[in-house]
Structures are given as structure tokens and as C-alpha cells.
TrEMBL record:
Entry superkingdom: Bacteria
Name under which the protein is recorded: LysR family transcriptional regulator
Protein family membership: Belongs to the LysR transcriptional regulatory family.
Alphabetized CDD domains for the sequence: PBP2_LTTR_substrate
Source species of the chain: Chroococcidiopsis cubana SAG 39.79
Pfam families per record: HTH_1, LysR_substrate
Length: 294
């Protein structure tokens, strides 16, 4: 008789691509997952994977089996996760960019649920590695880093604005024609630039999209925190490029000036990343619903 756990191990290996990775996802030992696969292959009398040094490659029989059982197993896992006592109170390990979490997520966390939350701040590449290794459950990411075992769902589109101090003296530019943009760019290169890092990652992309060239100035001030950059602009220390969710209130309250919100928006998608095997987990569905309202 085929065990439900054999099918779960098979699906995890199919999605992750390795026995060791599947074991991490399922919180099992590697030998246990291997035993489940061997037992399932023996019961079904087919080979499910071609073993290679780096990955487990599904055979045609393995592909057929996955297509036949995937929906049913996912529905059963969803039911189990919803009724299991352990799921009523759990630790949710979330990775996120610090600025986005503090501005858009912290105030939306439920005040009266039974879950516990641990939050890790960092860059997208580092957080996704921790998600793959099983050290995080969910990651809010500014990048889609392709991993076969990770799913990305779009949550939010941020637009980038060029902003400056409230008393900044912007040259009179009649329109957004090429001549007007050239005049604006020349003026901008005379201003103090505030950047997240020496490489000017956000500003460089904005410049290339709006002005069609690389920026050729060095930052006057480097602050590796977008909220710190916002404060520096408000204090009159220079100009910068910031996401709209960090700028809207400052512009409305006249704490600094919106220099340029380009007609051709400079945009970035923010994603919720999670392991394929967790797609029906209660915490995953909860955060998808929560963050879609940001």
C-alpha cells in the first residue's frame, strides 16, 4: 500500500531537484526521503528519476505521476495545515528589505493572532539563499532570483521619483522634450547627490531610463538606508532618487520637493517568495492576502 508520505517526498524531490533539498523542505533526514522514493518506485514498478551528480531528473513516468497526483496532494496538505493544532500557533520567519518592512508591513501585522514572527533584514540575494536553505519561510524580495524550488508572487509596484530639498531652485524647464531633459540633467550634475551606495544602484538605473545615459558624478553622501536618505534630503543635504512609498508624505507635507516623476515611470516589482512545497501552507496564503493589501 502506497504511503501518503512517499508521495510527499516524491513531490518535494520533483520540485526541489535534489534529495537533500527535499529533506530540508520536509524536515526529514536525507535517508528517509531516499527510502520513500525507493519504496514508491518498487510499489509502482517504475523509475521516477534519473540520478545525476547534481540533480534528480524526472523520467517520463515521474512526470506522468506528478501530473496525476499534484493537485490532490496539495489539497490534502492544505487541509492538514489548516486543521493541525501545530498550525494554530507557529513561528513565521520572514525576510525583507528593512525600509519596505518598516514602512509598509509592520503596521499591517495582525495584533491578535496566535502566530509568532521573526524578521530578518538583508539584501535579496542573501535572503533568498536563506529561504532555499530552509532558514526562512517567506521573503519579500526586490528581485526575482531564479531558483527551481522558489515561487514568486508580485505584491507591489514601486515607482522612483527624483527628489530634492524643499527650497531647491529648479531651473525653468518648459516641457519634457529632449532639450528640456538635457537642461535638467546639466543642472542635476551640479547638485550634491545622496546615494545608497558608492555604485549608485537606484540612481544609475533612473538616469539611464530617463536621460538615456550613465550618470557621471560621484555621490556627495552615502547612506545605506533609504529612510536615512529621505531624512538627508529633507535636511537639505542634496538630491536623490527614492521609491514613491517613501516620498509621498514628504512631498504632500512640503518637507522636500518632487523634482521629477517621469512620464515614463522607472518601476520595480516587489515580490513575495516562498518554496513551492509551501504554496498551500496557511502562513503563505495569509501573507499573500495581507501583503496584497499594501
Amino acid at each position: 500500500m502506497v504511503s501518503f508520505e512517499w508521495y510527499r517526498s516524491f513531490m518535494a524531490v520533483y520540485r526541489v531537484g535534489t534529495v537533500s533539498g527535499a529533506a530540508q523542505v520536509l524536515n526529514l533526514t536525507q535517508p528517509a526521503v531516499s527510502q520513500h522514493l525507493a519504496a514508491l518506485e518498487k510499489e509502482l514498478k517504475i523509475s521516477l528519476f534519473q540520478r545525476t551528480p547534481r540533480r534528480m531528473i524526472p523520467t517520463p513516468g515521474g512526470m506522468r505521476l506528478y501530473n496525476q497526483i499534484a493537485d490532490s496532494i496539495e489539497q490534502l496538505e492544505s487541509v492538514v495545515s489548516k486543521i493541525s493544532p501545530a498550525s494554530m500557533s507557529q513561528i513565521v520567519r520572514l525576510g525583507a528589505p528593512q525600509e519596505f518592512f518598516m514602512e509598509r508591513i509592520l503596521g499591517r501585522l495582525p495584533k491578535s493572532d496566535d502566530n509568532y514572527y521573526t524578521v530578518t533584514f538583508g539584501l535579496a540575494q542573501t535572503l533568498i539563499k536563506q529561504l532555499v536553505s530552509g532558514n526562512l519561510d517567506l521573503v519579500i524580495s526586490t528581485l526575482q532570483i531564479q531558483k527551481s524550488e522558489i515561487v514568486y508572487q508580485p505584491l507591489f509596484e514601486e515607482k522612483f521619483w527624483l527628489v530634492g530639498p524643499k527650497d531647491v531652485n529648479i531651473p525653468n524647464i518648459p516641457d519634457a522634450s529632449n532639450e528640456g531633459l538635457i537642461t535638467l540633467e546639466k543642472w542635476l550634475t551640479t547638485q550634491s547627490i545622496i546615494s545608497y551606495s558608492e555604485e549608485l544602484p537606484i540612481i544609475r538605473r533612473f538616469w539611464r531610463t530617463v536621460f538615456g545615459r550613465r550618470i557621471a558624478v560621484d555621490p556627495k553622501l552615502i547612506i545605506p538606508d533609504l529612510r536615512g536618505i529621505r531624512q538627508a534630503v529633507e535636511l537639505g543635504l542634496g538630491i536623490s532618487v527614492l521609491p514613491d512609498y517613501l516620498c509621498e508624505n514628504s512631498v504632500e507635507e512640503n518637507r522636500f520637493t518632487l523634482i521629477l516623476n517621469p512620464k515614463r515611470p522607472v518601476m520595480n516589482v516587489i515580490w513575495l517568495a516562498f518554496r513551492k512545497s509551501d504554496i498551500h501552507m496557511q502562513r503563505t496564503q495569509f501573507f499573500l492576502e495581507l501583503l496584497r493589501r499594501t
